[in-house]
Amino acid sequence: MKSLSTEILVIGGGAAGLSAAAEAAAAGAKVLVAESDLHLGGQLVKQTHKFFGSKDEYAGTRGFKIADILLSEIDSCKENVEIHTNTTITGFYPEDGIFTAMRGEEKFFHISAKKTIVATGAQERLIPFPNNDLPGVYGAGAVQTLMNVYGVVPGKRVLMVGAGNIGLIVSYQLMQAGVEVAAVVEAAPRVGGYWVHAAKIRRMGVPILLRHSIKKAVGDQVITGAYITALNDRFEPVGEESYMDCDVICIAVGLSPTTEILSQAGCGMMYVPQLCGLVARRDRTMRTSNPDFFTAGDASGIEEASAAMVEGRIAGLSAASSLGYPTEHGKLDEYWGRLQALRSGEAGARICQGLECVLVNRWEDVSNG
Amino acid sequence: MADDLDLFNSGVLTGEREGAVLPDRTLWESKKGGVVLVECPQRIPCNPCHTSCPTGAIRPFADINDTPKVDHSLCTGCTLCVASCPGLACFVIDLTFSGDKALFKLPYEMLPLPEKGQKVWCLNRTGDCIAEGTVENVTQPKKDRTYVIHVSAPKEVVGEFRTIRAVK
Ligand SMILES: Cc1cc2nc3c(=O)[nH]c(=O)nc-3n(C[C@H](O)[C@H](O)[C@H](O)COP(=O)(O)OP(=O)(O)OC[C@H]3O[C@@H](n4cnc5c(N)ncnc54)[C@H](O)[C@@H]3O)c2cc1C
Ligand code: SF4
Ligand code: SF4
């Protein structure tokens, strides 16, 4: 088994990982990026819509173009960056500080690194309902990958479950691909995503049924329809079920941070509902309780690409500086200023609450990590 | 009222709200080229409407999460914000187009692209067809595939008409 070594290992080549790599490499550190997928960009490559945020985070630019911008930034310091796509980090062994990596499905090797930035993004949540194992039930991420990466439409008529930003945006993208969206059902009494994203699909005639959820999928070999039901304030089904024709049921009920590697590295973890799951405690430099591990992006709490990119920059900057590379004074504060600006809205208030639980001032003052 | 709130909570503008303030009617009626209508009533971290506006009609944001504030008197109807807004929440409506028709300049990202002269259905905020319109022009101000479709339609629908569907 061959092995590789690097100064900074970045796990995950999405918005956060690419920003971290660019920042650390620009500071002079040697960086190795490991990405499971065949190409870099993470969630960004699937996003054909224009992003929000401010100019610093490329607002008004389509997601996949933002990935291109980050890649060209990395290209400009390519002598410091080694990229391994189709490469999954499968585990970390703290006893000897070794990562196991898998290229494709059969080539295994070791990686050792002085510092590691975990930017593994998130996993989709699914919900249980009868027949949810029939072909035609997809996570929203799969629908986006099929449609926007491979150019394949998932079906003719979709029932979307969940009106967060992902459910709303994927509905819009389905319509752009010529697929009918029968309805969006949302258990809460209001859409969870941005109001403007809801308005976009409402005016094209898509009903958004608040206080509604899916009851069961219908079909023999494949999905042919679904029963939906109204919910009361306690999210219990009330009234009659109604039937809806559809050949795809798309689940967009949320994401959870992907944090196994951080747990394996013994980083202090905490379950934080506002950040959507188990995340690592970290200080302002995105360092975890393990001084060699940093975290950024959705892996540190579900937020947005805009915040993921800034967190990635912070993690990259801090990892490089912890190795002794000189970094520009005041940059950390500048990045925190940007994060604070992004987080001062409605959705940001929730994130800030969550961060209060996991953010430590100085690790030296924390007794149990 | 409860119904109104449910409508709003599902993405349909009801009433006048912060971030969705109508232009003064007299000013609006006198402005050749039209005036912008912004329908963005929620605080979200976003500001391309302001950064794309060449005249300062969309006022600077003190906080990026603010809802947009508009000085309609500065607006020239240039549609740069229409094409830049990722929420497709900016529209320009020109009431000087003709006696009984207004010209609507609406963001559009669907295929096939309508052509000049084509008849289209005018849809309201819940997707109901409320009138027939005619495509007068198709532009692409930012050359990034968000098109701005100029449609003439009866003046009665200014308060409701927000997107189009091709007449099949
Ligand atoms: C439909 C949709 C619309 C969105 N719209 C917006 C928007 O308008 N504005 C906005 O700011 N944000 C938006 N987002 C959110 C944004 O895409 C994410 O917040 C952002 O991509 C997070 O970046 P990340 O780098 O943390 O994670 P990801 O982009 O998920 O990247 C993580 C990467 O890590 C890789 N990986 C995971 N585990 C391993 C491993 N063990 N080994 C190697 N590689 C691994 C994955 O393959 C993936 O490529 C949207 C998301 C979705 C799904
Ligand atoms: S139409 Fe032009 S002038 Fe008017 S607000 Fe938009 S960008 Fe500014
Ligand atoms: S650009 Fe559009 S979505 Fe963003 S704040 Fe302005 S009007 Fe709202």
What this model shows, in words?
The complex is a heterodimer of chains A (369) and B (168). Chain A is globular, with a radius of gyration of 21 Å. In chain A, 28% of the residues lie in helices and 29% in strands. The model of chain A has no long low-confidence stretch (mean pLDDT 95). In chain A, strand 5 and strand 6 (107-118) form a beta hairpin. Chain A has helices spanning 15-26, 63-75, 140-149, 165-176, 195-202, 260-264, 305-322, 331-342, 346-358, and strands spanning 3-11, 31-34, 81-84, 87-93, 98-103, 107-118, 122-124, 137-139, 157-161, 180-186, 208-210, 212-219, 223-231, 237-245, 248-251, 255-257, 269-272, 277-280, 293-295. In chain A, helix 1 packs parallel to helix 7, helix 4 packs parallel to helix 5 (195-202) and helix 7 runs antiparallel to helix 8 (331-342). With 369 residues, chain A is of the alpha/beta class. Chain B is of the alpha+beta class and 168 residues long. Chain B has helices at 2-9, 25-30, 48-52, 80-84; strands at residues 35-38, 90-94, 101-108, 119-123, 129-139, 147-154, 163-166. Chains A and B meet through helix 5, strand 11 and helix 9 of A and helix 3 of B. The structure holds flavin-adenine dinucleotide and iron/sulfur cluster (2 copies). One iron/sulfur cluster is lined by residues 38, 40, 46-49, 68, 85-87, 89-90 of chain B.
